[in-house]
Amino acid sequence: MSTRSRVLAAAGLALVLIGAGSGGMSAAAAGEPALLMAVSPIDSVTVVSDGFTVTGSGVELSITVNSTAPLTGMLAHLDDTTTNADTLDVTMQPPAAGAPAGTSTWTAPVTEGTPPTGLPLGTYSVTVDATFQDGTQIPGNPGQTVAFQETPSFTLNVNPVLSHDNQDPVISGTVTVVAPGAKTGTPYEGQVTLVASGQASVTILAGGDGGFTFSLTKPQPGETFYVEVPQSSTVAAGQTQTTTLSARTDQVKMSASLTAGTVTYGGKVSVRGTVSYAPGAGAFVPLPGQSVRIYDQAGGVTTAAGTAVTDGMGDFTATLPKVATSVHWVLQVSGPYLTTVTSTLPMKVNLPTAVTGFVATLNQFWQVSFHGCLGLPAHVPGSVPSLAGLTIQYSIHPGGPWHTLGTVAKQTSYACGNGGRTFSGTHTAQVNYAYYRAVYAGGTDQAGTGYLPSASGGALAWKYVDRITSFAVSKRVVSKGGKLTVSGRLQYYSARWRNYAGQQVLIILRPQGSKTWYYIATPKTNSAGLFSATFTDPVSATWSAEYLGNSTHLATVAGTIYVQLNS
Predict the structure, then answer these.
(1) Residue 32 contacts by C-beta under 8 Å, 6 or more apart in sequence?
(2) 417 phi and psi, to 5 degrees?
(3) Distance CA 188, CA 171 (A)
(4) What is the CATH architecture assignment of 251-350?
(5) Residue 171 pLDDT more than 90?
(6) Domain at 352-462: CATH architecture
(7) What 3-state class would DSSP assign to 4?
(8) Reduced to 3 states, what is the DSSP secondary structure of residue 336?
(9) What is the pLDDT of residues 321-336, one digit of tens each?
(10) Average pLDDT of 442-447?
(11) HSE on the CB side for 474, CA within 13 Å?
(12) CATH assignment, 466-566
């Protein structure tokens, strides 16, 4: 069968007309029956696989085919996929045992270079011209596209464990490309891309040494990344293994103290301390640049009060704001991949107090009346909680010594001054001439805030002291209807005892068996301070004389004398 016949029969069995004459007329045309004869299918070649293989001596093109008949020759055509130009024709070598019908692999060495002896880097479509044992050729058998390219190789440097010291991991490395069959690579200077699950891909050009550097921005544990080189006409695509980020939490500890545990409002108080951490469960080392948040807790309310930042040695200091109540300062350190640590420092705050508007007056009956305001000095916030601890003192000298006259009884008070409470009261004077003051002993409220002691200025209150001397009755026993004369002298003291003229004196009596005093006469003193009154004795009684005093003099009472009235 000729080559032409083989090509015509490529579709399957051919029907060949037998018995035609030389003139081309068939037997059927001559009136004779035609005889049909089956002919075998045409021989074929199918490319199973093709590609470049690195061997010990270089690179070879390897093509595996499946043929229906033995093969004796093969010519491979490599056409550039970009230009479609036939770049290189390669005579393939059969297997050492030959290429009988069936599967056979043909090879040929290929070197990088310029045609016709070398092959440039690139991608190529393969077609095969196959020669059968009988000399028949089947040209243009299609193969697969093959890549004759440099292969990228990566080195990668990264710490994939997120921690306080590694919050934005740096990914660095180099890319080298190895030419087909080469033993060593050369630096890659093309595009390199970071592909990360938590952020947009980033592409850069590798440096002259093939180096690259990327940085992940605030990634999260569990996110992944890899670095890739895109395929080009001369370089095959490649990428690193996918790396998954994990996380590590480092332990933190903090020491802190106040410069004063008790402070008077307005006084300067600072907090100082040190923060350290144990990276990777190692030894504790200073934690620099760390924020220390400061809060104050008072009355169940937590308020942000400021922030301190540690220095290179992990030390920090901060001046605390003025507060008008006792507080607990709470210091807290926390951050990404750090344990949270808290330190609580109690501080007692004492508020100064002031007694203002204190006034004391003495009436003629020896009663000292007082009032005033217990509050805080101007510009001190807050208010006094109660009047507990407030007493009244007296002294005969303006500078003391002071003696307690009495306390301020519990009473309804009203707002006064700066956060103050009014107070008032009355006590019996111990002397006719004295300075008086209100003294606050200090105290502490339920929140633990202290209130410092204070005292008012001295307020002078006095009157002349008086006395009744030479008190007498004319009789100790009086008959019914009889007369009784009561007399005496009224005096006051001013450097010495002096007679007090022109004053009304009450002659008083308490009937036998009674607890009530009555007055019966009201004589006035003469220029010598003397007084007397005569009247009918009404009843058996105890007699005395009383002076009620006035705006400048104290009241006084004479002694008592019993007079019997006989019926």
Answers:
(1) 19
(2) 55, -145
(3) 17
(4) Sandwich (2.60)
(5) yes
(6) Sandwich (2.60)
(7) helix
(8) coil
(9) 999 999 999 999 999 9
(10) 92
(11) 13
(12) 2.60.40.10
Q: In the structure, what pLDDT confidence band is assigned to residue 22 with cuts at 50, 70 and 90?
A: very low
Q: Look up residue 150 and give its DSSP letter.
A: B
Q: Has this prediction a pTM greater than 0.85? A: no
Using the structure block, give the residue that is written with the tokens 């490319």: 47
Q: Where are the domains of the chain?
A: 3-38, 45-147, 151-247, 251-350, 352-462, 466-566
Whether 423 and 389 have beta carbons less than 8 Å apart is answered as no
Mean pLDDT calculated for residue range 175-195? 93
Q: Percent of the chain scored above 70 by pLDDT? A: 93
C-alpha to C-alpha distance for 565 and 567, rounded to whole angstroms: 7
What is the CATH architecture assignment of 45-147?
Sandwich (2.60)
d(CA 379, CA 502): 55
Q: What is the pLDDT of residue 406?
A: 96
User: Please, are residues 72 and 62 in contact by the beta-carbon 8 Å criterion?
Assistant: no
Nearest to 218 by CA among 158, 172, 166: 166
The 10s digit of each residue's pLDDT in 67-105 is 999 999 999 999 999 999 999 999 999 999 999 999 999
Same fold, 45-147 and 352-462: yes
Question: Which are the contacts of 213, defined by CB distance < 8 A and separation ≥ 6?
Answer: 170, 171, 172
* Chain mean position to CA 486: 91
Neighbours of 34 (CB within 10 A): 14
Residues 226 and 198: their CA atoms lie apart, in Å, by 12
Q: Which residues contact 496 (CB under 8 A, 6 or more apart)?
A: none
Tell me the CA distances in angstroms from 335 to 290, 293, 305, 332, 495, one per residue in order.
8, 11, 19, 10, 83
Residue 49 CB neighbour total at 10 angstroms: 12
C-alpha 272/C-alpha 295 separation (Å) is 14
Q: Give the separation between CA 213 and CA 269, rounded to whole angstroms.
A: 49
**CA max distance for the chain:** 206
Average pLDDT, integer, range 32-48: 61
d(C-alpha 446, C-alpha 439), whole Å: 22
Tokens read off for 273: 């301390």
Q: Which two tokens stand for residue 547?
A: 């002076």
Given CATH 2.10.260.10, say whether it is the number of domain 151-247. no
